[in-house]
Design a protein that fits this description.
By secondary structure, the protein is mainly β. The protein has one domain. The protein has helices spanning 60-63, 131-135, and strands at 5-11, 14-20, 27-31, 36-39, 48-54, 68-73, 81-87, 91-98, 115-122, 127-128, 149-153, 172-179, 184-191. Strands 1, 2, 3, 4, 5, 6, 7, 8, 9, 10, 11, 12 and 13 form a 13-stranded mixed sheet that branches. Strand 7 and strand 8 form a beta hairpin. It is globular, with a radius of gyration of 16 Å. The two termini are 29 Å apart.
Amino acid sequence: MAREALLFVFHDDRLYTFERAERYSASKFGGPFDLKILGQPFGPKPLHRIASLGGLHIPSLNNHQLVELPLVYGLHYDGCRIDYRVRIGHTIELLNMAPTKSSDDWPYPHFPPLLPYVPLRLEDTSQRTNYDDFASRFPNMPEQQPADLIVAVPPPATIGLSLWGGPDADDVTIVFACDLKEKKVSACNLTT
């Protein structure tokens, strides 16, 4: 039986597809938010760790002194757009975020402060592709590749939690544009 793909990563003309692993892994979906946040204030609700990519799976992360690339997003912030820089020591610097005030009922009432922890593995091997083919899989992706590493997170069906709820839940994809040299990540959600 095929496993659900939870993350799609485009980097160096390759598609890396991540799915649930059976044991601990260098890459993960969800889990505890163990990062220190500096920079722009926000709140009162927390940000979510959507995923973390490990250098074991994406070797060029190691070339940029990124053992782990945390992918952080404000699920409690309606229409969130976020820019941050990854620092040493499990720290991120929040450069810009809009909105900065969370909603009590977004994305829906009683949404949890943590996403379920799911260890990830690469689905077989990476595939050669180009940005246009990668972008065509997801709604409203930028026409031009916005950064050297792009991560698309469509709404998962098998983690025991809906990210968005409601009838349009399948239409929202969280997209991370990662500039590895600058260690800068920009994230937003795209809908059809």
